[in-house]
Batch of 2 targets.
Target 1
Amino acid sequence: MATQTPLGLFGVEALIDPEDRAIRDAARAVLDTRVRPHIAQWYESGTLPARELARELGDLGLLGMHLEGYGCAGTSATAYGLACLELEAVDSGVRSLVSVQGSLAMFAIHRWGSEEQKQEWLPRMATGEAIGCFGLTEPDFGSNPAGMRTYAVRDGSDWVLRGSKMWITNGSIADVAVVWAATDEGIRGFVVPTDTPGFSAPAIKGKLSLRASVTSELVLDDVRLPGSALMPLAKGLSGPLSCLNEARYGIVFGALGAARDSLEVTLDYVASREIFDKPLAAYQLTQAKLADMTLELGKGMLLALHLGRLKDAGVVRPEQISLGKLNNVRESLAIARECRTLLGANGITLDYSVLRHANNLESVLTYEGTSEVHQLVIGQALTGESAFR
């Protein structure tokens, strides 16, 4: 009997448009050739050649790919999701580079910025010439961004920013930072060139997760900006939260990439690993684990594709993306952990990707809204009652 791939059992390919499939396949081919051979080394050393990688991903059209105009590819949301899946199948850190660039920094400028800000930054960010970061989370305010202490005050026609941000992907290599700050007019967003005096971004070291990713603190020490740095259309928390929703959508697909890769690696391993004179794959307990993991991967993929269709139709709601983020990250982490058990001691080494994926998914479980936050978003949608306070 011929073997089938996990997603092949679900007939997923028939659900993907040929154009979206071609974009996905092109991304997979480049990533398998240019990134996958090096990712374990980058993870072990805690480094990522982000600038070089950003240019290559820009050449492929993956940066801000779902945005229209300004050098962006203008693909479907589904194609963007499938690209995120392929990126995270290599490593969550690589997908984070693309997500922060396109769905946070570029989307913020594209949706909320002035025409001058768009013209100045978006074309260069689409090619990877300029790298962006997104400053919302603070050391004491993650799930409750409304409590932020970073403040911006008017000084004549200028703005002066004071405060700090934490856990900022791309921060220490960024050319531009989208920074959210409290003002007398409410929360506002600013486009901050990182060479502005008073801006610094020390890298965060000692990570046990997302090691192949640049993570930083942002320090704003009386950063003086012209009035033109203010994003004119963003007022209140709706601005940054809309950006987070874009990034969460990419995670719905992306997490499944880590799960798929873990499961594919494990299927290869159990087919060749002999235990008591027969392949590990031939044991009932092994097949039960593989079947359960395939079921969760396939269900997650069907959910992701459904959300992609809703997003392409312009009708997806934030609580629906919370459904996808909560389910797919949680199940992908469980898959990566279970795959590690089938690999035994080999599973703890960088010769195999499964524990690297599991470690990364521990971060993905937390960022862009913790599982608990998404549970409460879903709970509020079901009951009409807010349980956040």
Target 2
Amino acid sequence: MIIKELLTQLETSDKPIAKSIRKGESFNLISIGFKKDMILKEHLTTIPSKLIVVKGCVVYKEIDFSSTLHEYDTYDIPVNIKHSVEALEDSLCFLIKG
């Protein structure tokens, strides 16, 4: 139900929608939905994280680096590095923090 709720909310949103799927003492599994051209603004993480593209295509960007991630691609997000994510098409990603 969490992902269905996310996709329903995404229909009328002008920014990415994120929802926690499961959280434990040492991890958090988050789903992030994007419509084409949406941008998750620049931010940083203080704990190791992995981005997984479940559907669609996104561009992961750092100051001097970018990587296009397609369906089923993964990327280990470095700690304390500013980054953003832009959707090239409607996309659904999972983010594992911890």
